[in-house]
Amino acid sequence: MRVEIEVWRQDGPAEAGRFETHVVDDATPEMSLLELLDRLNDQLAGAGVEPIQFESDCREGVCGACGVTVNDTPHGPVPRTPSCRQHLRAFGGVSRLRIEPLRSAAFPVVRDLVVDRSALDRLIAAGGHVDVMAGTAPDADDVLVPHDAAELALDFAACIGCGACVAACPNGAAHLFAGAKLAHLALIPHGKLERGRRARAVVDALEAEFGPCSSYGECVEVCPAGLPLTAVAAVHRERLGAAFRGRAD
């Protein structure tokens, strides 16, 4: 199987980027996008050329590190699937791929396909946490969580932080990511005390780092965790609730 790859190369954050075209003649339908890049890097290294830099870790769709843009779509053509789980057999006979980094002003390119997603980390640092008493672990039934609330909280907690939602959004918004964190922590009793402070801090970080949400919905289509658009609504609901509750919490 012959695959022509147009791949983004950039030597550093301050350097100009460009596309390079390479051909992998021995690709197979079972290959994932990352395995295709591995094969291409074998060819480049064998020819004495600097391999393409890209990120990966688990390669099982869990860590979120592998995100790239394929033919103008974050992660690739298969909806709600991370790059490492996108296989060539699902591309419908496509033999030319354009692979570039996740594109967003919030994600500056570090090198080639690697981007700096620390803006998402700053959102988590602003409010993606709860305050707990340190010391001996409490009994499992000390803090009761209703079953339905726990299940819904786990659904929102499934976000892997890959950043595809930001790259897919025409505005570069991160409301799906932030809303998932706010909704998750609002549904469990452990985070109730700082709920208002969390909402204010996260929204402030959103406005400082990312674009505004216009509810286009592209973020949902590329989210590997299948987060619903209701996560976006959680951002406004939690911030408005914090305003009504006042500065006490």
From TrEMBL:
Gene3D superfamilies referenced in this protein's UniProt entry, alphabetically: 3.10.20.30, Alpha-helical ferredoxin
The keyword Ligase belongs to this UniProt entry's keyword annotation: no
Keywords of this entry: Iron, Iron-sulfur, Metal-binding
Thylakoid recorded as keyword: no
Domain 2Fe-2S ferredoxin-type: 3-105
Domain (4Fe-4S ferredoxin-type) ranges: 150-179
Residue runs in coiled coils: none
SUPFAM superfamilies the record matches: 2Fe-2S ferredoxin-like, alpha-helical ferredoxin
Pfam families: Fer2_3, Fer4_7
Cofactor(s) the record lists: [3Fe-4S] cluster; [2Fe-2S] cluster
Similarity comment: family membership: Belongs to the succinate dehydrogenase/fumarate reductase iron-sulfur protein family.
Protein name: Succinate dehydrogenase/fumarate reductase iron-sulfur subunit
Organism: Tessaracoccus lubricantis
